[in-house]
């Protein structure tokens, strides 16, 4: 891992998530990939700078590398035909109940094989990287049997070998009922809890366990049982919650100390308060909101009122958010959800790191963390949120390289 001294930077460190005023004439010293110093050039420790390669950033804006904390990047096939059905008036629920939706991706994913999944995911990952992403979370959930879920998670892990990027994986076996268990719901849940989850945990394939808690997916009682098992395995949990209705998913996530609850359009004040008390991050997904033409806005004011951290992510997936632009995601979060520029930047840096349990290592430009940087040809942070279809990334550094 590289040791470098970055000079002549305009630093937006995100050490304070509310502050996006750049540190002018800033410097970053990275030793073996970790930040040893970040701040004004005048404060550089001369004793550590001798012989270190120097990079002149020419007064460019520098932020932490972006973090996409909720994706379904690894999958087979696409669902463009369902997009046409929605344009003709079909709802997400109607498509799912007719055998489309998540289950339609399962067949394509099962037939792709691990190598095929890696190959199809790389172009999507490259798009994220091209806009400054240095850390990405990737879920399973399109295999829905042990071998296929393993293949998804292994493919996700392999992406970190193919590119300079940090990959965090989530086991999402509780995404939908597989076709072969359509008439045996209890049987699948038992298999998921007693065989699939322990196997994934034993092999170290997942950093977290996720679930889809919704009327068309899994109930709060079913998720509660799965999360209790996940906790016994020593795994963190996250939850797709309150997207289409309020089943109390946000509060359920908080009761289990979940790293995050995601979507949250129908979350009530009790859920927002419970999340804040538990330290559970609210991950908002404007791509899905836009793509399926939702009208119920997530309760951003309640999250602000209770001090719930807000993150944002692409939710890149084949059915409801085929989005691979973190910059457009920030613009959508601002225009659709009325997040501020500071909230958008924090949402794709430090708060996204908290949502993945990685804030000790990344998410802000601070001593001790990995030197994950995005260098922008931009005059002010607002440009990163304001523009659409424009990529001002000048350079990207992952662990100093």
What does this 3D model show about the protein?
With 401 residues, this protein is an alpha/beta fold. 39% of the residues lie in helices and 21% in strands. Helix 8 (249-255) links the parallel strand 10 and strand 11 (260-263). Helix 4 runs parallel beside helix 5 (146-162). The termini are close together.
What structural class should be given to the helix and strand makeup? alpha/beta
Q: Hey, roughly how much beta strand do the residues contain?
A: 15-25%
Described by strand count, sense and barrel closure, the largest sheet is: 8 strands, parallel
Weakly predicted, low-confidence segments: none
Give average pLDDT, whole number.
96
Short description:
The chain is of the alpha/beta class and 401 residues long. The chain is 39% helix and 21% strand.
Search tags:
401 residues; alpha/beta; globular
């Amino acid at each position: 891992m590289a040791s470098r001294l970055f000079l002549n930077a305009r630093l937006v460190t995100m050490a304070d998530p509310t502050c996006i005023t750049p540190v002018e004439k800033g410097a970053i010293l990275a030793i073996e990939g970790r930040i040893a110093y970040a701040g004004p050039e005048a404060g550089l420790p001369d004793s550590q700078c001798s012989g270190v390669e120097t990079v002149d950033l020419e007064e460019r804006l520098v932020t932490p590398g972006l973090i996409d904390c909720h994706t379904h990047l690894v999958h087979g096939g696409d669902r463009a035909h369902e997009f046409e059905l929605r344009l003709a008036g079909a709802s997400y629920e109607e498509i799912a109940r007719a055998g489309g939706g998540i289950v339609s991706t399962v067949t394509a994913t099962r037939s792709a094989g691990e190598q095929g999944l890696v190959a199809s995911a790389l172009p999507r990952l490259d798009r994220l990287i091209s806009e400054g992403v240095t850390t990405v979370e990737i879920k399973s959930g399109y295999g829905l049997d042990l071998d296929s879920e393993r293949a998804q998670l292994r493919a996700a892990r392999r992406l970190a070998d193919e590119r300079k990027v940090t990959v965090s994986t989530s086991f999402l076996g509780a995404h939908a009922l597989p076709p072969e268990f359509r008439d045996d719901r209890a049987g699948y849940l038992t298999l998921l809890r007693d065989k699939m989850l322990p196997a994934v945990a034993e092999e170290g394939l997942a950093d977290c366990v996720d679930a889809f808690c919704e009327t068309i997916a899994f109930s709060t009682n079913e998720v509660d049982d799965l999360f209790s098992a996940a906790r016994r395995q020593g795994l963190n949990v996250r939850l797709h919650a309150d997207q289409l209705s309020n089943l109390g998913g946000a509060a359920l996530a908080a009761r289990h100390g979940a790293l995050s609850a995601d979507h949250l359009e129908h979350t009530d004040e009790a859920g927002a308060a419970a999340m804040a008390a538990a330290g559970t991050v609210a991950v908002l997904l404007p791509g899905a909101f836009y793509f399926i033409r939702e009208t119920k806005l997530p309760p951003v004011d309640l999250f602000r009122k209770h001090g719930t951290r807000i993150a944002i992510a692409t939710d890149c997936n084949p059915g409801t958010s085929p989005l691979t632009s973190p910059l457009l995601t920030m613009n959508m979060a601002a225009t659709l959800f009325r997040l501020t520029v500071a909230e958008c930047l924090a949402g794709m840096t430090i708060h996204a790191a908290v949502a993945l349990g990685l804030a000790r290592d990344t998410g802000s430009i601070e001593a001790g963390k990995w030197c994950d940087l995005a260098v922008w040809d931009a005059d002010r942070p607002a440009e990163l949120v304001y523009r659409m279809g424009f990529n001002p990334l000048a350079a990207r550094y992952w662990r100093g390289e």
